[in-house]
Amino acid sequence: MDKYWTALSSIEELDSAFIIRLYNFFGSIERAFHADDLSVIEGLSVKKAEKFMRLRDKINPDKVLDDVLSRGINILTFENPNYPFMLKNIDNPPAVLYYKGDLSLCNLNKTLAVVGSRRATRYAKEALEKIISEFSQTDICIVSGLASGIDTTAHEAALNAELKTIGVIASGFDFTYPASNKDLYKRIENGGGAVLTEYYPTFKPVQFRFPQRNRIVSGLSYGTVVAEASLKSGALITANLTLEQGRELMCIPGLITNPNTGGIYKLLKNGASLITCADDVLEVLGWEVQMQQKLFSLPDLNEDEKVIFEALELEEKSVDELQAYTKLSIENLLTYLTTMELKGIIRQVDGDRYGKVR
After folding, report:
1. Which of 21, 166, 214, 302 has the largest count of CB atoms under 10 Å?
2. Which domains does the chain have, with CATH numbers?
3. C-alpha closest to that of 253 among 128, 352, 151, 343
4. Which of 253, 246, 289 is nearest to 269 (CA)?
5. pLDDT tens by residue, 257-280
């Protein structure tokens, strides 16, 4: 009966709550689609019932289904036994999930959502990369929204750690938003997990769909990590949804001088769990996984390079700061910095500043 679910979800004026209400009342999506009288549904407005009849009569279910399948898109409906259990138990579950990739590769019993600022700082990205990398080669699945900033970092860190990841988008598959994530979409779809949406392929990424998308990100997950968020950040919408859905909320602490951490500390003051490593996440969620720690081995360093590396242990430093610490000539220092960059153990940031590759 996928064609009737798909047909109803192809009507932009009908939301998932309305479709599932019809399904629950009639006990069959086919009967709901062909219903001639909606006045029997208590509390349903006449105006909404009339709109349904008018729009429904313009839809050919077989054609709609063919249009989706011809795009290489998979369909998972609310009544399908494979519909994600955690998502089915939120207040307003999606009527239909459209997805590309292989959702069966994703362990839906260990799903962790990650949200945060689209204008994330390097610190927040590196902190998140560190935590996700510590889950390497486990069966934990990272869920995020495929937006720029923290979302992108979360998906890329998951793929780099050989984890599966689910990207939840706020449009249909006819659109890639942001366009800069086109390659990331493909990496996820081609073995990295799944990209999914509740929206029919032709639906545009308009503004109101992004907060709607957030309920799916948190709804799929047992807990949500907020990596960076200002007091007005959209990530706080997902944080509140996480609590409303009865899931665990966790935050990565940041610099108190950074405006993007205002939302983080507000959440922490209100009871969110503070996390700084993968073990903290596991403790909050009560998960047991077999961690396979990968040791980072340094290439051979001479004595001067070891001093430089030691100087960068706690924080990034400028060339002047490194020269003062190491007492090296500027010529030798710059030569060593270039050599160490080529070895992949340090990197240049913000002009003349250098930091360790974590």
Report:
1. 166
2. 1-65 (no CATH), 103-285 (3.40.50.450), 303-356 (1.10.10.10)
3. 128
4. 253
5. 888 899 999 999 999 999 999 999
